[in-house]
Each structure stands twice: as C-alpha cells, then as structure tokens.
Write a structure and sequence with these properties.
single chain, Leucine-rich repeat, LRR (right-handed beta-alpha superhelix), 2 domains, Leucine-rich repeat-containing protein 58
Length: 205
C-alpha cells in the first residue's frame, strides 16, 4: 500500500526491479544519485504520478516508460541525456549573407552573373533545399541536423541524417523518401505523436 517513496541523495547506482511490485506507488523520488539506467519493469507502476530522476547519470530512457499513462511529472534535469538533448538543439542563427541568399532563392529574385560579384554567384549556387515538403525553403551554412529512422525492405530501421533549414522545420522527410517507407513507418509516426504529447510533461529545467 506504499504510495510515496523517497530515495534521493543515497548514492544509488541502480534501481532494483523489485520496485515494480509496489502497485499503489504514486510518487517515486530517486534524484541526486548515481543511477545510469531505468529498469523497464518500472513501467508496471501504473499508479505512478510523479517520477523524480534529476541529477543522475542517465543517458537514455527505456521505451517502456511510455506505458506510465498516469505519469504527470517526470524530472530529468542534470542528466547527460538532457545535456545532450539541449546541446543537439543548439542552432547558430543564419548570417546576414545567408538570410539574403535565402530570400533571393525562395522568392526567385532574378539575377545574372554580371549583376553580382563572382563569390556571391558561387554562394547562391550552393543553396540546399529543405527536405520538409511543407517548407520549400533553402539553407546554406546554417542548418539543423535531425535523425530520421526509415524502414528498409520492411526489415530494418535505418537511422538517416537529414538537414533542416530551421529548428521549427521538423516535419518528416520529403515525399520522395516517404514513398520508400512501409506502413510501419506511418505507425511509428503515430507512436511518435503520442510520445510527443507525453513528453510535454517532462521537466528538463
């Protein structure tokens, strides 16, 4: 019948899977320890409302954590996974030259090689199209890296790197890439949308 368990600040290095045998547990505090991984068995804590894991050594979370459908608060700040997540989101804003180049390319501003210096003509020729089919934008030096998992032959999930023109431009691959994916790809996108709604509850700071 235990509902609240506080184990913070005890130099704990691992979470015993036996904690999953506390069906009434609603609040679990494991902050300020040395925990490196979360046992998937914790997904059996269906009554859990709050899970405090900040200031540990976590580099990933198990997929099973999405089964905690009643979880309202998940604190992760001060873990390597959050530090890496924030670092990967860093985005150097485009330079004035790139902003001008993007405008020229996206608005189809006409120009001839005789109108611009040779280095600018060469620069404009290096524009890359954003893979987001709903965007239609371009980028030069300033872009956002993103991993997209694509089904290959219906058997393998290949992580492919693609580049977006801005952090807000985070839709799936271009339609050409989408045509090569299987039904399981759309299924995974549905799962990702569910996960995204759940992740709104995560406290990163």
């Amino acid at each position: 019948s235990l509902e609240f368990l506080y184990l913070g600040g005890n130099f704990i290095t691992s979470i015993p899977p036996e904690l999953a045998k506390l069906p009434s547990l609603r609040y679990l505090v494991l902050c300020d320890n040395k925990i490196q991984s979360i046992p998937p068995q914790l997904a059996q804590l269906h009554s859990l409302r709050s899970l405090s894991l900040h200031n540990n050594l976590l580099t990933y979370l198990p997929r099973e954590i999405l089964n905690l459908v009643h979880l309202e608060e998940l604190s992760l700040r001060g873990n390597p996974l959050v530090v890496r997540f924030v670092r990967d989101l860093t985005y150097n804003p485009p330079s004035l030259q790139e902003l001008a180049g993007r405008t020229v390319k996206t608005r189809n501003v006409p120009y001839a090689p005789s109108d611009l210096p040779e280095n600018l003509v060469r620069y404009l020729s290096l524009a890359s199209n954003c893979p987001n089919p709903k965007c239609g934008g371009v980028y030069f030096d300033s872009c956002v890296r993103q991993i997209k998992f694509v089904d290959f032959c219906g058997k393998y999930r290949l992580p492919l790197m693609h580049y977006l023109c801005s952090p807000e431009c985070s839709s799936p691959f271009s339609s050409a890439s989408q045509s090569s994916t299987s039904q399981s790809e759309s299924d995974s996108d549905d799962e990702a949308s569910v996960a995204a709604r759940r992740m709104q509850k995560v406290l990163l700071g």
